[in-house]
């Protein structure tokens, strides 16, 4: 997006503010479908947890995507956005059987990742098609909190439990129509991904009625200049060839599915915040903004990098700043970062704010969550109003003392 559009958004809608670029979302979606154009049946299921605003979901519906969901609330958002139930897959972890049954009653594709729930569900609902999430025991992902395919992960059914898994399916006579894996986010080495895919192919041979194989996602996007990213074009060439080969061996048409979140929306997002104070200490110059980790927690939670620009003074002389928030504890976005000279009142722009930013925002310190704006067809559209004090009190109940 252009700096003028971002400044216009800050002026019109205030700060702090999340801004999303619909064109970038569309470009990323088409980049992925083009990379796998050699596959006849391809399904891209957007991971709702990355950014769940209903207008964003409607944009993905317009693009032709399905949805990957992890809660019944995300399923309900998808239905509200116009998605047909069969185009939504439900991949929870640690939820109750009741929630899974409620989602299944809506006609949504179920994906189960533990033997206990699989046996209970299969015993009660043997005719409901179920996908199985396999843990391939492959370590992938840029942070231990987002690496979910390793042996100590809480996610998926271990490939070493395959005999037990097959026994449950035989005993319940349940219908398995899909098989799934997800190794983690920020995958750097596609060879590791392809190795995990081979494990999934070998596992798939044990199931004779599959309609799809879901390879998860975790494609890395660049967060800084010259940053490495997942080469989806190379992955598309290699995995498409292997998938088509396996499909021929399997003997029936299969859909290749992915469930990207960050890849589709991260680079589309910008977080705008106003500088409240520039504070010089004995060793540091702090730029304190009108936000904190209550709005953008990734730097504090994951140690993640977000490029920060002073869009009020983009060509100014660069100085070193530590950018901090207003939360009353350590609340740091960046340490000793080179940024164009900052003055109080300037607007700072955080890049890669589309994924796991607003969706992880909170009301910590009783602060309001920001507004959200989507730039679509050359115009900024408000897609979420800034919260008010009434929102903070909405579900609180005062008692009389």
UniProtKB/TrEMBL annotation:
Enzyme Commission number(s) of this protein: 4.1.1.20
Binding, pyridoxal 5'-phosphate: 218, 356
Active site location: 328 (proton donor)
Cofactor field: pyridoxal 5'-phosphate
Domain (Orn/DAP/Arg decarboxylase 2 C-terminal) ranges: 19-354
GO molecular function: diaminopimelate decarboxylase activity; pyridoxal phosphate binding
Reactions performed catalytically: meso-2,6-diaminopimelate + H(+) = L-lysine + CO2
Residues the entry annotates as binding substrate: 298, 302, 329, 356
A GO BP annotation: lysine biosynthetic process via diaminopimelate
Keywords: Amino-acid biosynthesis, Decarboxylase, Lyase, Lysine biosynthesis, Pyridoxal phosphate
Record-linked CDD domains: PLPDE_III_DapDC (cd06828)
Top enzyme class: lyase
Pathway in which the depicted protein is active: Amino-acid biosynthesis; L-lysine biosynthesis via DAP pathway; L-lysine from DL-2,6-diaminopimelate: step 1/1
Residues the record lists as N6-(pyridoxal phosphate)lysine modifications: 49
Domain (Orn/DAP/Arg decarboxylase 2 N-terminal) ranges: 23-266
Listed InterPro entries: Ala_racemase/Decarboxylase_C (IPR009006), DAP_deCOOHase_LysA (IPR002986), De-COase2_C (IPR022643), De-COase2_N (IPR022644), Orn/DAP/Arg_de-COase (IPR000183), PLP-binding_barrel (IPR029066)
HAMAP family in the record: LysA (MF_02120)
Subunit structure, interactors included: Homodimer.
Function of the protein: Specifically catalyzes the decarboxylation of meso-diaminopimelate (meso-DAP) to L-lysine.
Family: Belongs to the Orn/Lys/Arg decarboxylase class-II family. LysA subfamily.
UniProt protein name: Diaminopimelate decarboxylase
Organism: Flavobacterium piscinae
